[in-house]
Amino acid sequence: QVQLVESGGGLVQPGGSLRLSCVGSGVTYSMPFSMYHMSWYRQAPGKEREEGELVARISNRGIANYLDSVEGRFTISRDNDENSVYLQMNDMNPEDTAVYYCNAVGYYNLQRIVSWGEGTQVTVAS
Q1: CA triple 104-108-112, angle to 5 deg
Q2: Fewer Cβ atoms within 10 Å of its own Cβ: the N or the C terminal residue of the chain?
Q3: How far apart are CA 65 and CA 83, in angstroms?
């Protein structure tokens, strides 16, 4: 099972940008990073992680999907050689304030494998 570590969170002013990174480790030859569907979720203040929302997803084929409210502002990308996925966030607003979690979903021998990172705090405030 892949282990995920996020970085890049912090405090940014409205209209500013941040780039989140998520690095995976513990991948195997039979289940490389490239086989995982990768996503970024966020948990807003006062909400449980289970109430978090899917911000962006990139499939193992590189197809990206976004939450409506971030479409055009956020870009998800992946570098399989680096076992990494990124979230470039531009034109940020206070509603983007949340803990952002990296998520990996893979399938091996018909079993669904799910991994989560510990999260990174993003705060948008002037």
Answers
A1: 55
A2: C
A3: 20
